[in-house]
Structures are given as structure tokens and as C-alpha cells.
Amino acid sequence: SRWGQGMIQVENLRKSFGGFHAVDGANLRIEEGTITALIGPNGAGKTTLFNVIAGVLKPSSGRVYMDGEDITGLPPHTLFGKGLLRTFQIAHEFSSMTVRENLMMVPGGQTGETLWRTWIDRRRIASEERALARKADEVLEFLTIDHLADERAGNLSGGQKKLLELGRTMMVDARIVFLDEVGAGVNRTLLNTIGDAIIRLNKERGYTFCVIEHDMDFIARLCDPVIVMAEGHVLAEGTIEEIKKNEQVIEAYLGT
Ligand code: ADP
What we know:
Strand 7 (176-179), helix 7 and strand 8 (208-212) form a beta-alpha-beta unit. By secondary structure, the chain is α/β, with parallel strands linked by helices. A six-stranded mixed sheet has the order 6-7-8-3-9-10, sandwiched between helices. A four-stranded antiparallel sheet has the order 2-1-4-5, covered by helices on one side. The chain has helices at 46-53, 76-81, 99-104, 112-120, 122-142, 158-170, 188-205, 216-222, 240-245, 247-254; strands at 8-17, 20-30, 35-39, 61-66, 69-70, 84-86, 176-179, 208-212, 226-230, 233-238. The protein binds adenosine-5'-diphosphate. Adenosine-5'-diphosphate binds at residues 17, 20, 22, 40, 42-48. GO terms for molecular function: ATP binding; ATP hydrolysis activity.
């Protein structure tokens, strides 16, 4: 990346809950253009690390940099503006909305500003909505779920929901996406579709990904490098082949 120090650089990051260090001095880099996997036994601190990087949680200490700029503790919407996104499960209140409507919500649709403008320029709103709907349909086509556009989000399968989460990142100009486990409870066919979408977003649109994942086949197909966390810090980093042979990693998994 521009500064030769990783697109994302995490330095001595710590997040404590009470006296417990969920993230305990983590140091890592995510290079631009990679699909980086973050793995490790349950309780290793992966989700907490994601949440700190994405501004959902404030760190207890340490720094996070993006392209060399200190972004530590910035709120999610500011990071969103820089193209740093963390995917989230579709919240309950959005499950009765359609898939297309869920996508149209993303670029800050429901702000006070929009409500105000509704008063002063209904026409412009209507044309913006049409543009948004078009964009949503393009996204759905890219993800090969255009047939689900009018389905309620709550009716989607686990894998289809993951595709919709990915779709939400495509409604804005994402640069790096932090993606929570896609493998859990998703059938092979859909998992391959999700994998294809991630690879295409990476290759065709230049997305960088950091994914928390447990499915080794999925990681082997998509991810390089693999970063292993245990007990709140980074234990090892390498290709999946290197990681599988690493004694410390094997021990960390056996220890749980
Ligand atoms: P992973 O994603 O690797 O499974 P987590 O980041 O979810 O790990 O959790 C790391 C540790 O921090 C776990 O022991 C978990 O119980 C603890 N933890 C996570 N969030 C909180 C919280 N809000 N309050 C207290 N403990 C937490």
C-alpha cells in the first residue's frame, strides 16, 4: 500500500472488559488487495478485534491505522466514509423489508437531512430513489440473487443473508470489508457462490477483505495470508499450508 506498512495496521491493541483482556496486545497488518483470513479458537478475540477496528468498540489502548492515518476510535460512520466496512447480520427491524429495500437503506437513506429534503424537493428524492433502486438491482445481479429482490429479508436462508450483507457493502464505495464467518450453517453450493462473489469483488473491484472463518476449504480456496489469533494476540501468520503445519497453532486449537 501507499505507505508500505499495510492498508490496515494494528499496533499493540488491547480491549479489556473489566479486568479481562479480550484483545491483549495484538499486532497485525492487512495488505491492500488481499483476502486475509482471521482464524483462531473460540474466545481468541477475533470478533472483539473486528469491532475495535471497525469503530464499534473503543480500544483500551493501542492504535489502528488505515493507509498510515490514525483511525483509532473513529465511529463507524466516519470509517464507512473512508471505505472501511464491517458486515452485520440483518437486524430484526429490517427483516420485514424486502431485499431491495434493505440495499436501498445503506447509503445513509434515512437521515434527518433526507426527511427535511422530502419537504423541499420530492422530485429529487424520487429520482434519487430510482437511481438507488437501479444500483440495488445491479448489486443483486452481481451476486446472482436478483430473483430474491422482492423477497422479505427475514425469509432468506443463512447463506442468502450473507450475500445480502455482502451486497450492502457494494452500495457504497467500500475499500476494505470485515466479514464475519460465512461458513456457519451455509450449504456448500451457496458457500461457493459467496466465495465466488468475494473473489470477484477482490479481483474486479479491488476490495480488500478480512474474514473471520472456520471452514478450512473456504479459507484454502480464498485466503492468503491467514492470521491466527489466540488469547487476544496474533500467534502466527502465513499461507494456509504453513499454518496447518505450525506446532503453536495446533497446540492452541488442541488447548480449547
Ligand atoms: P472470538 O471471536 O475469537 O471467538 P471474542 O472476541 O468473541 O472471541 O471473545 C473474546 C473473549 O472476550 C471471550 O472470552 C469473550 O467471552 C470475551 N468477551 C467478548 N465480548 C465481551 C463483553 N462485551 N464483555 C465481556 N467479555 C467479553
